[in-house]
Protein backbone atom coordinates (compact mmCIF):
# COMPACT_ATOMS: atom_id res chain seq x y z
CA UNK A 1 0.00 0.00 0.00
CA UNK A 2 1.37 3.39 -1.04
CA UNK A 3 2.18 5.70 1.81
CA UNK A 4 0.64 8.00 2.68
CA UNK A 5 -2.86 7.02 1.57
CA UNK A 6 -3.86 10.57 0.68
CA UNK A 7 -7.56 9.87 0.30
CA UNK A 8 -7.67 8.33 3.79
CA UNK A 9 -5.68 11.24 5.19
CA UNK A 10 -7.93 13.78 3.50
CA UNK A 11 -10.98 11.98 4.88
CA UNK A 12 -9.63 11.99 8.43
CA UNK A 13 -8.05 15.44 8.51
CA UNK A 14 -10.21 18.04 10.21
CA UNK A 15 -7.74 20.87 10.79
CA UNK A 16 -8.00 24.41 9.50
CA UNK A 17 -4.34 24.99 8.66
CA UNK A 18 -2.06 22.46 10.38
CA UNK A 19 -1.07 19.91 7.75
CA UNK A 20 -3.22 21.47 5.03
CA UNK A 21 -0.12 22.03 2.93
CA UNK A 22 1.81 18.78 2.61
CA UNK A 23 5.38 18.43 1.38
CA UNK A 24 6.09 14.71 1.11
CA UNK A 25 9.32 12.83 0.43
CA UNK A 26 9.73 9.08 0.31
CA UNK A 27 13.32 9.48 1.48
CA UNK A 28 15.04 12.53 2.86
CA UNK A 29 18.08 13.39 5.05
CA UNK A 30 16.02 15.10 7.75
CA UNK A 31 12.55 16.65 7.49
CA UNK A 32 13.94 19.50 9.62
CA UNK A 33 16.23 20.59 6.77
CA UNK A 34 13.46 20.51 4.18
CA UNK A 35 11.16 22.43 6.53
CA UNK A 36 13.85 25.07 7.08
CA UNK A 37 14.13 25.57 3.34
CA UNK A 38 10.34 25.82 3.09
CA UNK A 39 10.15 28.29 5.98
CA UNK A 40 12.90 30.47 4.50
CA UNK A 41 10.96 30.50 1.23
CA UNK A 42 7.86 31.81 3.05
CA UNK A 43 5.87 28.59 3.59
CA UNK A 44 2.55 29.26 5.31
CA UNK A 45 2.05 28.38 8.95
CA UNK A 46 1.09 24.75 9.41
CA UNK A 47 3.07 23.49 6.41
CA UNK A 48 3.77 19.81 7.01
CA UNK A 49 6.95 18.12 5.82
CA UNK A 50 6.51 14.36 5.97
CA UNK A 51 8.88 11.56 5.03
CA UNK A 52 8.64 7.79 4.85
CA UNK A 53 12.35 7.45 5.59
CA UNK A 54 15.11 9.68 6.92
CA UNK A 55 18.73 8.89 6.21
CA UNK A 56 20.04 11.46 8.72
CA UNK A 57 17.17 11.81 11.19
CA UNK A 58 18.30 13.74 14.23
CA UNK A 59 17.25 13.89 17.85
CA UNK A 60 17.93 16.29 20.67
CA UNK A 61 21.49 16.90 21.91
CA UNK A 62 23.10 15.84 18.64
CA UNK A 63 21.76 12.30 18.81
CA UNK A 64 20.52 10.45 15.76
CA UNK A 65 16.93 9.30 15.28
CA UNK A 66 16.39 5.87 13.76
CA UNK A 67 14.14 6.44 10.74
CA UNK A 68 13.68 3.23 8.70
CA UNK A 69 11.17 3.28 5.80
CA UNK A 70 7.65 1.88 5.77
CA UNK A 71 7.04 1.94 9.52
CA UNK A 72 6.94 5.20 11.41
CA UNK A 73 6.01 8.86 11.34
CA UNK A 74 8.72 11.47 10.71
CA UNK A 75 7.38 14.97 10.32
CA UNK A 76 8.21 18.63 10.78
CA UNK A 77 5.69 21.47 11.01
CA UNK A 78 6.51 25.05 10.11
CA UNK A 79 4.99 27.37 12.71
CA UNK A 80 5.28 31.10 13.31
CA UNK A 81 4.19 31.66 16.92
CA UNK A 82 4.63 34.80 18.98
CA UNK A 83 7.73 34.58 21.19
CA UNK A 84 5.77 33.94 24.41
CA UNK A 85 4.08 30.92 22.81
CA UNK A 86 7.31 29.41 21.46
CA UNK A 87 8.32 27.91 24.82
CA UNK A 88 4.93 26.33 25.26
CA UNK A 89 5.45 24.24 22.13
CA UNK A 90 7.64 21.88 24.16
CA UNK A 91 4.49 21.22 26.16
CA UNK A 92 2.02 21.23 23.29
CA UNK A 93 3.90 18.70 21.13
CA UNK A 94 4.26 15.72 23.51
CA UNK A 95 0.75 16.31 24.77
CA UNK A 96 -0.64 16.18 21.23
CA UNK A 97 1.28 12.93 20.67
CA UNK A 98 -0.10 11.42 23.89
CA UNK A 99 -3.65 12.44 22.96
CA UNK A 100 -3.27 11.00 19.45
CA UNK A 101 -1.95 7.72 20.85
CA UNK A 102 -4.86 7.53 23.28
CA UNK A 103 -7.41 8.30 20.54
CA UNK A 104 -6.07 5.82 18.02
CA UNK A 105 -5.02 2.95 20.29
CA UNK A 106 -6.48 3.52 23.76
CA UNK A 107 -2.96 3.47 25.24
CA UNK A 108 -2.25 6.11 27.88
CA UNK A 109 1.30 7.29 27.25
CA UNK A 110 3.39 9.23 29.74
CA UNK A 111 5.70 12.19 29.16
CA UNK A 112 9.30 12.20 30.36
CA UNK A 113 10.17 15.83 31.04
CA UNK A 114 10.31 17.86 28.96
CA UNK A 115 8.98 16.22 25.82
CA UNK A 116 9.73 12.53 25.36
CA UNK A 117 6.68 10.29 25.07
CA UNK A 118 7.02 6.97 26.82
CA UNK A 119 4.95 3.85 27.27
CA UNK A 120 5.93 2.13 30.48
CA UNK A 121 9.71 2.48 30.68
CA UNK A 122 10.34 2.69 26.95
CA UNK A 123 10.47 5.64 24.58
CA UNK A 124 7.79 5.86 21.89
CA UNK A 125 8.25 9.33 20.43
CA UNK A 126 10.50 12.38 20.53
CA UNK A 127 10.21 16.08 19.78
CA UNK A 128 12.85 18.37 18.30
CA UNK A 129 12.15 22.10 18.28
CA UNK A 130 14.41 24.37 16.26
CA UNK A 131 13.68 28.06 16.00
CA UNK A 132 14.88 31.22 14.30
CA UNK A 133 14.41 34.26 16.47
CA UNK A 134 15.46 37.72 15.28
CA UNK A 135 15.10 40.99 17.13
CA UNK A 136 12.77 39.42 19.72
CA UNK A 137 10.51 37.97 17.02
CA UNK A 138 10.11 34.38 15.92
CA UNK A 139 10.75 34.22 12.18
CA UNK A 140 9.70 30.57 12.23
CA UNK A 141 10.06 27.44 14.24
CA UNK A 142 10.41 23.86 13.09
CA UNK A 143 8.51 21.41 15.23
CA UNK A 144 9.89 17.96 14.49
CA UNK A 145 8.16 14.85 15.76
CA UNK A 146 9.13 11.20 15.37
CA UNK A 147 6.71 8.47 16.46
CA UNK A 148 7.52 4.77 16.39
CA UNK A 149 4.29 3.44 14.95
CA UNK A 150 5.02 0.04 13.42
CA UNK A 151 8.75 -0.32 14.02
CA UNK A 152 10.16 -3.67 15.01
CA UNK A 153 12.38 -2.26 17.77
CA UNK A 154 13.90 -5.64 18.53
CA UNK A 155 15.47 -5.57 15.05
CA UNK A 156 17.57 -2.54 16.01
CA UNK A 157 20.12 -3.60 18.66
CA UNK A 158 20.61 -0.07 20.12
CA UNK A 159 16.86 0.33 20.63
CA UNK A 160 15.81 -3.20 21.55
CA UNK A 161 15.89 -2.55 25.30
CA UNK A 162 14.88 1.10 25.48
CA UNK A 163 12.35 1.89 22.75
CA UNK A 164 8.88 0.76 21.88
CA UNK A 165 6.35 1.18 19.07
CA UNK A 166 2.57 1.10 18.94
CA UNK A 167 2.82 -2.21 17.10
CA UNK A 168 5.00 -3.66 19.83
CA UNK A 169 2.50 -2.58 22.50
CA UNK A 170 -0.62 -3.75 20.66
CA UNK A 171 0.67 -6.77 18.75
CA UNK A 172 -0.84 -5.42 15.53
CA UNK A 173 -0.08 -2.76 12.93
CA UNK A 174 -1.59 0.70 13.26
CA UNK A 175 -2.36 2.78 10.13
CA UNK A 176 0.06 5.72 10.17
CA UNK A 177 -2.54 8.00 8.55
CA UNK A 178 -4.84 7.56 11.56
CA UNK A 179 -2.13 8.56 14.03
CA UNK A 180 -1.04 11.44 11.80
CA UNK A 181 -4.54 12.90 11.35
CA UNK A 182 -5.22 12.68 15.08
CA UNK A 183 -1.83 14.21 15.89
CA UNK A 184 -2.44 17.17 13.54
CA UNK A 185 -5.91 17.65 15.03
CA UNK A 186 -4.54 17.83 18.58
CA UNK A 187 -1.54 19.93 17.58
CA UNK A 188 -3.80 22.58 16.08
CA UNK A 189 -6.20 22.52 19.03
CA UNK A 190 -3.43 22.72 21.64
CA UNK A 191 -1.46 25.31 19.67
CA UNK A 192 -4.55 27.51 19.49
CA UNK A 193 -5.13 26.95 23.21
CA UNK A 194 -1.51 27.88 24.01
CA UNK A 195 -1.82 31.04 21.89
CA UNK A 196 -4.93 31.99 23.83
CA UNK A 197 -3.18 31.37 27.19
CA UNK A 198 -5.23 28.22 27.82
CA UNK A 199 -4.43 25.61 30.49
CA UNK A 200 -2.22 23.22 28.48
CA UNK A 201 0.28 23.02 31.33
CA UNK A 202 -1.97 21.11 33.73
CA UNK A 203 -2.69 18.25 31.30
CA UNK A 204 1.01 18.00 30.46
CA UNK A 205 1.92 17.99 34.16
CA UNK A 206 -0.60 15.22 34.85
CA UNK A 207 1.12 13.03 32.24
CA UNK A 208 4.67 13.63 33.50
CA UNK A 209 6.22 10.36 34.64
CA UNK A 210 9.27 12.26 35.90
CA UNK A 211 7.64 13.83 38.96
CA UNK A 212 8.30 12.17 42.29
CA UNK A 213 11.32 10.31 40.87
CA UNK A 214 15.00 10.46 41.76
CA UNK A 215 16.67 11.73 38.60
CA UNK A 216 19.93 12.88 37.05
CA UNK A 217 19.58 15.95 34.81
CA UNK A 218 22.24 17.01 32.32
CA UNK A 219 22.13 20.51 30.84
CA UNK A 220 25.04 22.34 29.23
CA UNK A 221 28.07 20.91 31.04
CA UNK A 222 26.16 20.73 34.30
CA UNK A 223 24.89 17.56 35.97
CA UNK A 224 22.40 17.73 38.83
CA UNK A 225 20.92 14.93 40.89
CA UNK A 226 17.89 14.99 43.10
CA UNK A 227 14.15 14.56 43.41
CA UNK A 228 12.04 15.84 40.54
CA UNK A 229 9.48 17.58 42.74
CA UNK A 230 7.34 19.56 40.34
CA UNK A 231 7.25 21.88 37.34
CA UNK A 232 6.53 25.60 37.50
CA UNK A 233 4.15 27.63 35.35
CA UNK A 234 6.88 28.01 32.72
CA UNK A 235 7.29 24.23 32.49
CA UNK A 236 10.69 24.29 34.22
CA UNK A 237 11.61 21.23 36.25
CA UNK A 238 11.90 21.91 39.99
CA UNK A 239 14.64 19.68 41.33
CA UNK A 240 15.27 19.19 45.07
CA UNK A 241 18.97 18.54 45.61
CA UNK A 242 20.24 16.28 48.40
CA UNK A 243 21.35 19.33 50.42
CA UNK A 244 17.73 20.54 50.46
CA UNK A 245 18.18 23.41 47.99
CA UNK A 246 15.90 23.61 44.97
CA UNK A 247 16.68 24.66 41.40
CA UNK A 248 14.52 25.32 38.35
CA UNK A 249 15.83 23.76 35.13
CA UNK A 250 14.63 25.11 31.81
CA UNK A 251 15.77 22.33 29.48
CA UNK A 252 17.90 19.25 29.84
CA UNK A 253 18.20 15.53 29.54
CA UNK A 254 16.72 13.49 32.36
CA UNK A 255 17.72 9.99 33.36
CA UNK A 256 15.33 8.32 35.76
CA UNK A 257 17.37 6.56 38.43
CA UNK A 258 17.21 2.81 37.90
CA UNK A 259 16.53 3.03 34.16
C1 LIG B 1 14.48 13.30 20.43
O1 LIG B 1 13.75 12.66 21.19
O2 LIG B 1 15.70 13.34 20.60
C2 LIG B 1 13.84 14.06 19.31
C3 LIG B 1 13.59 13.20 18.10
C4 LIG B 1 12.95 13.96 16.95
C5 LIG B 1 12.86 13.13 15.69
C6 LIG B 1 12.08 13.83 14.61
S1 LIG B 1 11.72 12.76 13.25
C7 LIG B 1 11.16 14.12 12.31
C8 LIG B 1 12.12 15.28 12.58
N1 LIG B 1 13.26 15.18 11.70
C9 LIG B 1 14.38 14.91 12.36
O3 LIG B 1 15.51 14.77 11.83
N2 LIG B 1 14.14 14.83 13.67
C10 LIG B 1 12.74 15.04 13.97
Feature tags:
alpha+beta; 2 domains; single chain; 259 residues; SH3 type barrels
What is the CA–CA distance across the termini? 38 Å
For the CA atoms, what is the radius of gyration?
A: 18 Å
Query: How much helix, percentage-wise, in residues?
Result: 25-40%
Shape: globular
How many separate structural domains?
Answer: 2
Strand arrangement, major sheet: 1-2-3-7-6-5-4
Strand content: 25-35%
Ligand list? biotin
Classified in CATH, the superfamily of the largest domain is: Bira Bifunctional Protein, Domain 2
Subunit arrangement of the protein: single chain
* Count of DSSP H/I helices: 7
SSE order, as H and E? HEHEEHHEEEEHHHEEEEE
Would you give the CATH topology of the largest domain?
BirA Bifunctional Protein, domain 2
Structural class: alpha+beta
Q: Give unreliable regions as ranges.
A: none
Second-tier CATH architecture of the largest domain:
2-Layer Sandwich
Characterise this structure.
With 259 residues, this protein is an alpha+beta fold. The protein is 27% helix and 31% strand. The chain folds into 2 domains: 6-206, BirA Bifunctional Protein, domain 2; 214-256, SH3 type barrels (Roll), CATH 2.30.30.100. The chain is built from 7 helices and 12 strands. Helix 1 packs parallel to helix 6 (176-195). The chain starts with 5 loop residues before the first helix and ends with a strand. It binds biotin (BTN). Biotin is lined by residues 30-32, 54, 57-60, 63, 65, 74-76, 116, 126-128, 144-146.
Amino acid sequence: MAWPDLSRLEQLLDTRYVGRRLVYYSSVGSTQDIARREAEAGAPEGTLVLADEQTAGRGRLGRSWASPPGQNLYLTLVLRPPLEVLKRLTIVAPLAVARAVADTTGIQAGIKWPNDVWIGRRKLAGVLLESEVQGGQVRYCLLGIGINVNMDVEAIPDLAEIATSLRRELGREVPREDVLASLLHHLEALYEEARGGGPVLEEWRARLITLGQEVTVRFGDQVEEGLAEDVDEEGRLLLRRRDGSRIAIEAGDVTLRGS
